[in-house]
């Protein structure tokens, strides 16, 4: 399995096959200025935006990245214990050479390479955390442990497996090259070198680096606050017993988990009913956060009020539809200095559009220097046939430890059980109808 280390929009076309990102190079971004929204209040909210062509997957993601840009979040200090998952606000430099001295990378004997093969007198021993004060003279060696500093005079290490010890002598039939099994001082990094870059989200390896250079406290960007607003009279609280025509509010809580996982601080707002005035009030509350995520109410129905409410708040809409399945009716815009996404209401659509588009905006607002889509490549376990025209994100199971992925049978974008059984989405190119069993497919990790 190959994992993408950069956003696939920036990868070479042939690395992902089929060329479904190519249109990003030639499709202009579509920006719309705010419309005369005052006339919308109290009128039919349907069709409040002028008809524009839907953006393809690559162009829509590029629009999000370019529009959000590189904001400057507030900086705050945190202790090393609280730094995991945060975004680094400053470059971090090495406080000394690493390693600071020549160091053995094997258990064995520190020798002069010119003295072996042969028998050498064992002059002493040095362990990790100790210093050896003597000098290794001709005909001598020092027993040494992994991580211990190389004694003066020695220039190689003979592994303990290649030596025999008897009566205070070490004998070996192996020759050695100068520097063998030695990490030289500064071979990992030098004092003053930048070891971590501003804009890095701190994982366990970065925490190890911070601890190594003595950064007990570190400057990070403040986590963005994200308001989550589900819409629709059919949505009831999780603890409620829904009637046959109602559904529990799964989207808000799924989004809250996704937001937290991406480094944001989620706030779940009350559900907006199918009423324009109530929706406006809740949208205005949501725009107090750094990012507003709306779920539902962005299709063409007579009771979908989200776009009208946003227009009332002075919104400009950057796009209102994307050529993907699921998740085509996706709105991205800005109102009162805050970015918002109007995500489709069905759970799979919500999950896909957050992962592909809204997460990138959230990461940029968090100070991440380069948002990444976690794309892998795997061999599909059965032939897949899908209608072309849209980039499709199909729920699938990526097998643990092997590059094999199996599509899951699903019953549409409301199929939460299928979503829960999946751990990835096969990314089917808009221009490809068939993936034969065994062929390589791009896979978006969840």
Short description:
The protein has 446 residues and is α+β, with helices and mostly antiparallel strands. It contains eight helices and 29 strands. The radius of gyration is 29 Å and the shape is elongated.
CATH fold node name of the largest domain = Molybdenum Cofactor Biosythetic Enzyme, Chain A
Find the count of extended strands (DSSP E, 2+ residues): 29
- Which parts are unreliable, with pLDDT below 50 for 5 consecutive residues or more? 1-48
Order of strands across the biggest sheet? Answer: 8-5-7-6-10-9
Give an account of the 3D structure.
This protein is of the alpha+beta class and 446 residues long. It has 3 domains: 2-74 and 222-366, MoaB/Mog-like domain (Molybdenum Cofactor Biosythetic Enzyme, Chain A), CATH 3.40.980.10; 76-97 and 188-221, Molybdopterin biosynthesis moea protein, domain 2, CATH 3.90.105.10; 103-183, Molybdopterin biosynthesis moeA protein, domain 3 (Beta Complex), CATH 2.170.190.11. Helices cover 18% and strands 27% of the residues. The chain contains 8 helices and 29 strands. The chain has helices spanning 13-16, 57-68, 204-212, 250-261, 276-286, 306-312, 347-366, 416-421; strands at 2-3, 75-79, 92-93, 103-104, 108-111, 118-126, 140-144, 156-159, 164-166, 169-172, 182-183, 194-196, 217-221, 225-230, 235-236, 247-248, 265-268, 291-295, 316-319, 324-325, 331-335, 338-343, 375-380, 384-385, 391-398, 404-407, 424-428, 434-435, 440-445. A 6-stranded mixed beta sheet has the order 8-5-7-6-10-9, with no helix packed on it. The chain has a 6-stranded mixed beta sheet with strand order 17-14-18-22-21-19, sandwiched between helices. Helix 2 runs parallel beside helix 7. The longest helix has 20 residues, at 347-366. It is elongated.
């Amino acid at each position: 399995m190959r994992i993408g280390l950069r956003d696939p929009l920036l990868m070479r076309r042939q690395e992902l096959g089929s060329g479904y990102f190519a249109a990003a190079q030639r499709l202009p971004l579509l920006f719309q200025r705010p419309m005369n929204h005052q006339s919308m209040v109290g009128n039919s909210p349907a069709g409040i935006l002028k008809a524009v062509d839907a953006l393809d997957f690559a162009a829509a993601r590029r629009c999000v990245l370019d529009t959000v840009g590189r904001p400057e979040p507030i900086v705050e200090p945190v202790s090393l214990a609280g730094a995991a998952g945060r975004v680094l606000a400053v470059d971090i430099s090495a406080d000394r050479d690493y390693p600071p001295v020549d160091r053995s990378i094997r258990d064995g004997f520190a020798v002069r390479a010119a003295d072996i093969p042969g028998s050498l007198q064992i002059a002493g021993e040095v362990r990790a955390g100790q210093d050896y004060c003597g000098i290794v003279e001709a005909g001598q060696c020092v027993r040494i442990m992994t991580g211990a500093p190389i004694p003066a005079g020695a220039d190689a290490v003979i592994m303990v497996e290649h030596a025999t010890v008897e009566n205070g002598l070490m004998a070996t039939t192996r020759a050695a090259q100068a520097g063998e099994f030695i990490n030289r001082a500064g071979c990992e990094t030098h004092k003053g070198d930048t070891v971590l870059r501003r804009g890095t989200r701190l994982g366990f390896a970065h925490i190890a680096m911070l601890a190594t250079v003595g950064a007990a406290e570190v400057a990070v960007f403040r986590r963005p606050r994200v308001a989550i607003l589900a819409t629709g009279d059919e949505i009831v609280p999780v603890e409620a017993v829904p009637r046959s025509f109602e559904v529990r509010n799964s989207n808000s809580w799924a989004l809250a988990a996704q937001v937290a996982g991406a480094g944001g601080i989620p706030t779940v707002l009350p559900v907006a009913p199918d009423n324009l005035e109530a929706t406006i009030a809740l949208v205005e509350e949501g725009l107090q956060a750094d990012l507003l995520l709306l779920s539902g109410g962005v299709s063409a129905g007579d009771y979908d009020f989200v776009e009208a409410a946003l227009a009332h708040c002075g919104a400009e809409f950057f796009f209102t539809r994307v050529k993907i399945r699921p998740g085509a009716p996706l709105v991205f815009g800005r109102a009162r200095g805050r970015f918002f996404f109007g995500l489709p209401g069905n759970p799979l659509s919500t999950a896909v559009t957050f992962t592909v588009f809204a997460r990138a905006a959230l990461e940029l607002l968090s100070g991440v220097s380069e948002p990444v889509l976690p794309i892998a490549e795997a061999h599909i376990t059965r032939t897949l046939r899908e209608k072309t025209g849209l980039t499709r994100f199909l729920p699938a199971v990526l097998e643990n430890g092997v590059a094999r992925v199996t599509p899951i049978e699903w019953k549409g974008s409301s199929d939460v059980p299928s979503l829960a059984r999946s751990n990835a989405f096969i990314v089917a190119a808009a221009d490809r109808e068939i993936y034969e069993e065994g062929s390589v497919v791009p896979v978006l990790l969840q």
